[in-house]
Design goal:
Shape: globular
Structural class: mainly alpha
Number of helices: 9
Length: 177
């Protein structure tokens, strides 16, 4: 039986790793922290995989672990991070460089949000979860999701360059699905 659970977990990781890492990048603002965060969340999920695999939505269960681990990271951290507003300039801008610049601007803007607002914005608008699903993942009420999303979006709108970035991204290259 243990071998079967192990195989199920390995298949889950293979299928969902990149999606979980993308979510973690938006939560942390840093690809290296995101991979560490994803590994930590998956390690916790592995320890209780028997229960996780029986859940109605194992990915939602692991996503909740991911958000919790990210919150723990802020509680334990003593030194503040300082993210740059944009990646270094490159000569000439092709589509890939423009997308990287836009991603850098978005990550910098998300880094300015408090952890709870960041989690709500990422889960609601990047992961495209309903308010109820976000509330379930974060263990709060739908009203809290609404207020945190409203405050987070208002703060993002004030971030320099983000409005321009989002108007360029409006050509159908949105969220994570």
């Amino acid at each position: 039986m243990q071998a079967e659970l192990e195989a199920q977990f390995q298949e889950f990781v293979r299928a969902r790793w990149s999606h979980l890492v993308r979510t973690a990048i938006l939560l942390t603002g840093d690809p290296h922290h995101a991979e560490d965060l994803t590994q930590t969340a998956l390690a916790k999920a592995y320890r209780s995989w028997r229960r996780v695999s029986r859940a109605d939505h194992p990915e939602a269960y692991v996503r909740r672990i991911l958000v919790s681990c990210n919150s723990d990271r802020f509680r334990k951290r003593r030194v503040a991070e300082s993210l740059t507003a944009a990646p270094p300039e490159h000569p000439g801008h092709d589509d890939a460089v423009t997308r990287a610049d836009e991603r850098g601007t978005l990550l910098a803007a998300l880094a300015q949000l408090p952890p709870r607002q960041r989690a709500v914005v990422v889960l609601r608008y990047w992961e495209d979860l309903s308010e109820g699903e976000v509330a379930e993942v974060l263990g709060c009420s739908p009203g809290t999701v609404k207020s945190q999303a409203s405050k987070g979006l208002a703060k993002l709108r004030t971030f320099p360059g983000l409005a321009q970035t989002m108007s360029h991204a409006g050509s159908g290259q949105g969220g994570g699905r």
